[in-house]
Specification:
heterodimer; A: 81 residues; mainly alpha; Non-ribosomal Peptide Synthetase Peptidyl Carrier Protein, Chain A; 5 helices; B: 446 residues; alpha+beta; OB fold (Dihydrolipoamide Acetyltransferase, E2P); Chloramphenicol Acetyltransferase; 2 domains; seven-stranded mixed beta sheet; 11 helices
């Protein structure tokens, strides 16, 4: 999957979690939790959705390090989804 | 036969709007069944039935405002229902719906009720989607930075939501034509002052009194000014709390290193869907500590301290559109960690999608508010009356920690307690925080 496809999926899943927000407007290095006002419950649900949609496992440790769109994109590419 | 009344879904509620009956007259009902939905300042709440029987006479229809305590319907036993059906009605049914009489003088509550009613019942010509500004926090921040009035911005995002580009466009337009004060055609979410207690907007909404039921009420899909009603509800409850409850506060630092290591190990064994968030462990530890110091778990009603046997934790959940709700997680001390995780997930999801049940709004015996996600280190809470305590949980941070003459770095949580001094003293509060600390050092035993 190329970068723009991945980005589209990330944005779609974020939009489902943070209703009424505009994840597409975030820059690559904006903090998602702050930018979209999502809490740890929302964040976990976002990673659950992402892992199920892309058939990958995201460990708890990794989850804690994924804070921006750029970091998530890199991570997913490294997982070769 | 018994009466099914409009429940009080919070200290601040004087009336609710019946949205729909989920059952009809003659239907068998069981304890715990959801039989009606009522709109309040906290959204649409599903109302549960408290006994088995047959839903008999129904006194109110969808769309009507019903004061708390008013009989909505009667519930009869099967025998009673059959007997009534076979005999002609002799006397008038026991409780005819009375008019919505003015409540006994409780000025503040009365005013808030007006405000809430007005907010809830206000008919509006605009479609339901326009009742509040849909905007991302980012766009909101940009709007603040650029000094753009959101009421003047036309959103082009999904569902008409306002995006950053809309703000920037509006800012440019503003620059181009500075003196023109643009007024949005549709009323966006009413300004809070419009429903502030000092200016009850009675004439604005003029909700029809309950007895005016000759007019057919349209199937309700009311555009509610949810935020104003929510603010009024919070204002009423918190104002009452600060007027009446002599709070005392205390805090303690809890070393969470062991608890988090246990959680990490536990989560490594689980699929992502089954993972436990730290808050689940914290709620469980709070419940266990309350079982040890039960005086903090209960109510102060009519000058009496009432300790509750059930430990139903009201968990403060913020809403994306603003405001917060503290619905109860029932019997937290009796639940396993997994059951508690499911209950928390379910509750947050239903709170945010507006699907709470009446018992969840009435049964909380204490509130826990966790603001660590927002970087808050200490929470000094305001007790939700008639409860007698509130537990505040902050962010877990790395801190220097001296123990047994050695200095090291630990992951530390600051837990606070706000207590009602009429019901308990600092000694009890201290015992609770001590128990909480101890239980969090032994999370595997929770």
């Amino acid at each position: 999957m190329n970068e723009s496809e991945l980005k589209e999926i990330i944005i779609a899943e974020l939009a489902k979690i943070a209703l009424g927000s505009d994840p597409a407007a975030l820059d690559l290095d904006d903090n998602l939790r702050e930018g979209l006002d999502i809490d740890s419950f929302d964040a976990l649900n976002f990673f659950i959705a992402l892992s199920e949609r892309l058939h990958i496992d995201i460990s708890e440790k990794d989850m804690g390090k994924l804070n921006t769109m750029g970091e998530i994109l890199h991570y997913l590419q490294a997982q070769r989804v | 036969m018994s009466e099914f009344k409009m429940p009080s879904l919070g200290a601040d509620m004087d009336a609710g709007t019946l949205v729909e009956w989920k059952r009809k007259s003659g239907d068998p009902v069981k304890r715990g069944d959801i039989i009606a939905a009522v709109e309040t300042a906290k959204g649409v709440i599903e109302i549960e039935c408290f006994e088995d029987g047959i839903l008999d006479e129904i006194f109110f229809q969808a769309g009507q405002d019903v004061p708390v305590g008013q009989v909505l319907a009667t519930i009869s036993s099967e025998a009673e229902f059959r007997q009534k059906a076979s005999t002609p009605k002799v006397a008038e049914s026991v409780k005819a719906p009375e008019a919505a009489v003015a409540e006994p003088a409780k000025p503040a509550a009365q005013v808030v009720q007006e405000a809430m009613k007005a907010a809830i019942a206000q008919p509006s010509a605009t479609p339901a989607t326009s009742d509040r500004v849909k905007i991302s926090p980012l766009a909101r921040r940009v709007a603040e930075d650029l000094g753009v009035d959101l009421a003047t911005v036309q959103g082009t995002g999904p569902g008409g939501s306002i995006q950053r580009s809309d703000i920037e466009r509006a800012a440019q337009a503003k620059k181009a034509a500075p003196p023109e004060p643009v007024k949005a055609p549709e009323p966006v979410a009413a300004r809070p002052q419009e429903v502030a207690p000092t200016a009850p907007p009675v004439e604005r909404a003029a909700p029809p009194p309950v007895e005016a039921k000759a007019e057919p009420v349209p199937e309700v899909k009311k555009p509610t000014d949810f935020q104003s009603a929510m603010r009024a509800a919070i204002a009423a409850a918190m104002g009452k709390s600060n007027r009446e409850i002599p709070h005392y506060y205390m805090e303690t630092s809890i070393d969470m290193t062991k608890a988090l290591a246990w959680l990490e190990e536990e989560n490594a064994k689980r699929t992502i869907r089954d993972r436990l968030l730290p808050v689940v462990v914290l709620l469980k530890a709070v419940a266990k500590s309350l079982a040890e110091v039960p005086e903090l778990n209960g109510f102060w009603i009519d000058g009496q301290h009432q300790v509750s046997e059930s430990i139903n934790i009201g968990f403060a959940i913020n809403l994306r559109q603003g405001g917060l709700i503290t619905p109860a997680i029932h019997d937290v001390d009796m639940k396993s960690m997994d059951e508690l995780r499911d209950a928390v997930n379910d509750l947050i999801t239903r709170t945010r999608s507006n699907k709470l049940r009446s018992s969840e709004l009435t049964d909380a015996t204490i509130v826990v508010t966790s603001l660590g996600d927002r970087g808050v280190e200490k929470v000094f809470g305001v007790i939700y009356p008639p409860q007698v305590a509130l537990v505040g949980l902050g962010k877990i941070t790395e801190q220097p920690w001296a123990e047994n003459g050695t200095l090291s770095v630990r992951k530390v949580l600051t837990a606070t307690l706000a207590g009602d001094h009429r019901a308990t003293d600092g000694h009890k509060g201290g015992l609770f925080l001590e128990a909480l600390n101890r239980n969090l050092q032994e999370v595997e035993k929770l």
